[in-house]
């Protein structure tokens, strides 16, 4: 921009110098023309004076037509001088031009007087009044018109010479001034070029150092380093690209660290899950061992009873039929108990293998609950407990396996009476929902802990219920039956009292499972 301004300044000086040179050249031409024309005026005027002397001396007018033409040329020359002076006055309104005009007017007056006297002398000679003509010419000589005219011509010439000298001095001054300006402009441009070179070298060097330092920082892993904004577009674009690259690398590194931490957390979680699984497997194995021991005990007891009763019967020599019937009835009861235990084991095994079959039909579950309520209300009274049925529905039909649903409800009611103390109040509730029927059996027994809620339906688990009578298969059997009905069963502690609540959710209709 500065170079452009300097170039424009030099161009302006060149144009102004050219204009001044042209102006001085025109003024010089005008001065030269004026000098030539003043010389012509002096020559023609002198010729007029000589011609008047010849007319007075000879008394004759020679070649009057030629003399008239010279008078016309003289006037035309004066007119040309005036035009040139007026032109100079329009171009340059200077006081010297006014002085030249004054000198021109005086010369013009003298010329007109010479011409007028010349005409009067010619008329007097033509009228043979030679003596008057001589007197008029003598008067003209006495007034020193020729001397005054020559002085005026000399004055005008000197003025034009002075004007020419001023033009020469102006041209010389313009020449020296232009040389100084040109040299100064060249010096300024040279200094500016050196400064520009140093300035851009310094900016490029600083930007290059910043970029080099940034790359070293990035290489060292310091991706939070950022390059300061650059002034130059190229370095600004490069710095922005490097900063974006650093941001992307930092983001990728952050994502990698997140993935690494996530992987470590997953490994820790998998390790924890594996350890927990191992603990659970150990617990399951321990429960299996305990279960086998309990089953062995449960089977040993009825088998021992059967064997003992059979041996007693064999050793007995009684012929009483009633005695034999009593022993056989005891044996049959123990066989039934053993058969029920084995059936529970087979049911849980089939459910785990997905082979549990149901005999579905529509039945009135309200009627089933009423029947079970009547049965277990008597048992509750025997244990000095109360059982309440809270149902607002009299006829409620669902599609399910009635025998298996009865088995589940009996398991839950048995547990409620077994684990509740005397004077406890147990309750059966039934609720109708949009897609499910909810049956709740609420007891006031020993309750369960939060940890037991996750294990209470597992096989072989008995928890704090291990002191109670039973094989520990009741709840697993109930869960297997409810799961086969696409339902849901939970056992949770009561919020505001002791004991627990068993909740069964059964769908209204059974949905056939389509194998793909």
Model description:
It is found in: Membrane. It is an enzyme of class 2 (transferase). Residues 202-254 form the HAMP domain. The protein has 516 residues and is α+β, with helices and mostly antiparallel strands. It has three domains: 1-188, Four Helix Bundle (Hemerythrin (Met), subunit A); 223-356, Signal transduction histidine kinase, dimerisation/phosphotransfer (DHp) domain (Helix Hairpins); 358-507, Heat Shock Protein 90 (2-Layer Sandwich). The protein is built from eleven helices and seven strands. It has helices at 2-58, 64-91, 95-126, 130-142, 145-219, 233-315, 321-353, 365-382, 402-419, 450-455, 474-484, and strands spanning 361-364, 386-390, 397-400, 425-432, 436-442, 488-493, 500-507. The chain has a five-stranded mixed β-sheet with strand order 2-4-5-7-6. It has a two-stranded antiparallel ribbon with strand order 1-3. Strand 6 (488-493) and strand 7 form a beta hairpin. Helix 1 packs antiparallel against helix 2, helix 3 runs antiparallel to helix 5 and helix 6 (233-315) runs antiparallel to helix 7 (321-353).
Features:
alpha+beta, Four Helix Bundle (Hemerythrin (Met), subunit A), single chain, 3 domains, Heat Shock Protein 90, 72% helix, 516 residues, Helix Hairpins, five-stranded mixed β-sheet, disordered C terminus, two-stranded antiparallel ribbon
């Amino acid at each position: 921009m500065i170079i452009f301004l300097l170039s424009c300044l030099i161009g302006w000086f060149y144009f102004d110098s050219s204009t001044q040179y042209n102006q001085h050249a025109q003024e010089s031409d005008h001065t030269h023309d004026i000098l030539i024309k003043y010389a012509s005026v002096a020559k023609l005027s002198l010729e007029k004076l000589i011609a008047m002397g010849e007319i007075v001396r000879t008394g004759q007018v020679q070649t009057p037509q030629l003399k008239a033409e010279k008078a016309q040329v003289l006037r035309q020359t004066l007119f040309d001088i005036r035009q040139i002076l007026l032109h100079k006055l329009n171009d340059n309104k200077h006081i010297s031009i006014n002085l030249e005009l004054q000198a021109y007017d005086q010369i013009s007056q003298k010329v007109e007087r010479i011409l007028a006297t010349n005409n009067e002398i010619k008329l007097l000679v033509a009228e043979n009044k030679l003596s008057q003509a001589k007197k008029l010419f003598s008067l003209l000589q006495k007034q020193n018109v020729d001397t005054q005219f020559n002085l005026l011509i000399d004055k005008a010439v000197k003025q034009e010479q002075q004007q020419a000298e001023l033009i020469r001095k102006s041209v010389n001054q313009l020449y020296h001034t232009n040389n100084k300006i040109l040299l100064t402009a060249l010096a300024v441009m040279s200094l500016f070029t050196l400064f520009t070179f140093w300035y851009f070298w310094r900016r490029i060097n600083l930007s290059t150092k910043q970029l080099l330092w940034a790359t070293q920082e990035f290489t060292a892993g310091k991706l939070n380093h950022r390059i300061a904004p650059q002034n130059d577009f190229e370095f600004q674009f490069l710095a922005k690209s490097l900063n974006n690259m650093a941001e992307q690398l930092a983001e990728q590194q952050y994502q990698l660290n997140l993935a690494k931490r996530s992987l470590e957390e997953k490994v820790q979680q998998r390790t924890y899950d594996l350890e927990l699984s191992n603990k659970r497997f150990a617990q399951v194995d321990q429960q299996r061992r305990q279960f086998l021991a309990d089953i062995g005990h449960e089977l040993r007891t009825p088998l021992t009873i059967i064997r003992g009763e059979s041996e007693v019967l064999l050793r007995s020599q009684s012929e009483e039929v009633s005695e034999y019937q009593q022993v056989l009835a005891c044996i049959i009861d123990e066989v039934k108990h053993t058969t029920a235990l084995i059936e529970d084991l087979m049911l849980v095994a089939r459910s785990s293998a997905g082979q549990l079959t149901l005999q579905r039909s529509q039945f009135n579950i309200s009627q089933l609950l009423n029947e079970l309520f009547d049965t277990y209300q008597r048992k509750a009274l025997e244990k000095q407990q109360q059982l309440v049925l809270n149902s607002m529905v009299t006829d409620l039909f669902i599609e399910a396996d009635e025998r298996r649903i009865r088995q589940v409800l009996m398991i839950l009611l048995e547990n409620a009476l077994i684990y509740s103390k005397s004077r406890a109040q147990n309750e059966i509730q039934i609720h109708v929902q949009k897609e499910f029927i909810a049956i709740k059996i609420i007891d006031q027994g020993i309750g369960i802990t939060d940890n037991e809620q996750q294990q209470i339906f597992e096989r072989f688990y008995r928890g704090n219920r291990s002191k109670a009578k039973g094989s520990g298969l009741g709840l697993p059997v109930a869960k297997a039956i409810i799961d086969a009905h696409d339902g849901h069963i939970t056992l949770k502690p009561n919020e505001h009292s002791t004991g627990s609540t068993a909740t069964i959710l059964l769908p209204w209709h059974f949905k056939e499972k389509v194998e793909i």
